[in-house]
Amino acid sequence: KEEFKDFMEKREFKAINVTIPYKKDVIPYLKEMDESATAIGAVNTIVNKEGNLYGYNTDMPGFIYMVNQNKIQMKDKKVVVLGNGGAAQAIKAAVQKLGAREMIVVDIVPAEGVISYDECFTHHTDADILVNTSPVGMYPKVDASPVDLTAFPHCQAVLDVIYNPITTKLVAQARELGMIGVTGLEMLVAQALYAVEIFLQNDIPEEKIQEIYKEILETL
Fold first, then answer.
1. Residue 23 annotated in active site
2. Element (H or E) spanning 120, and its range?
3. Global pTM exceeds 0.85
4. DSSP assignment of 179-204, as one string?
5. Catalytic residue among 5, 10, 23, 71
């Protein structure tokens, strides 16, 4: 973290991918952002063009790819999003784009449009789909889970944007309860492919996502 300011000011890179907790912190260093990054308020892809930095967001299409690939229908569903950090902004935009009937955002720090976990457990256990954008359950704290899914008896699918570990405690419980459970490796690969298209200004066949995804799984 102490190197971040110096790194961004020096701009000694052609292009970078950005992850948590820097997706909002990079914005003041950018000359321009694309439409999706501006709407989302978070950047995960930066290109250096002649010393000027340009920001993009490929997390949203990456998440949409993962939803569609796993045949999860969000249209007209009630979706609970856990977490409201940099990673959540793209997911919230994607959930709206996919036509969810209702979206409830939950965080440990309630704010405008964001409720507490207690309020969620009191009023929103009828959710159809649950998405975890918080870092709870990420390596090395793999025994943690943001919620107990037995509190959500109507839930059909759980998407966790965490990709390390490959199966989070949350997703393992979802599968045990007969729900669709998906972790974030496909989203990670998809957003990376879309980012590389921006880096190289070149289209890459989308089939490559599954090819790379399967290659990674085989190495684990």
1. yes
2. helix 117-123
3. yes
4. -EEEETHHHHHHHHHHHHHHHHT---
5. 23
